[in-house]
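Feature request disguised as a bug report, sorry. It would help if multi-protein outputs had a clear separator. Right now it looks like this:
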Amino acid sequence: MTKSELVDRLVSENHLITRKDSEIVVDIVFDSIRNALRSGEKVEIRGFGSFTIRERGPREARNPKSGELVSIPAKKTPFFKTGKELRDRVNNACD
């Protein structure tokens, strides 16, 4: 599902909100998650999952084309862990 499909679903399921307003709502939710992660906070949505930041240390890697050693600096990456309710719904839908 893309962001625009999410907005379309929000509009189709709730006839009281316009497409423009639903775009604003979706943007606010994503921006809030992004800003919380940027400031080092954990974002937890009960029944859905949690977003955290994981720090990866610096490491050495090899360029597959030339075989030369390349230094990769430390970085932070977002990590999503699904909640139990979401896992159960996905697994029960597949049965």
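(second protein starts here, but nothing in the output says so)
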Amino acid sequence: MTRFWYTRRGLGGQKGFTLIELMIVVAIIGILAAIAVPLYANMQARARIAKAQADIRGLASAVSIYTAHMGTLPSVLGLLTAIATSPQNITAGPFMATIPTPPSTAWGAAYNFAINAALGTFTISAAGDGATVSAP
């Protein structure tokens, strides 16, 4: 077995890989990279969408808790980070430590908060990476 590694090969006894062998290895690496890069980019986009969904669920919960405490919907999401005093003079909060930011600049600078005062409902939404996420 050891004789195989120590036998003389080719020109002047030089050992190493041939150009064809190296080209085959480079081609295999290129094929693997061509498969892996799109999969990696897809996983990143799915992770950003999942982060946006989690953020919006957390914001929706905080808005619901604020509404239960105050009796009205907050006018802006920034009110969730402050201490609030209800009409019954009961203080509570902050309902969130900070307002989360969207996962990337493609999602915009902040989550959209819309109130339907007539129905007493709200919607928190964001769009990016080819997806739109909203709650409730």
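Even a blank line would do. Unrelated, but nice: The beta strands are 84-85, 91-92, 112-116, 121-128, 131-135.
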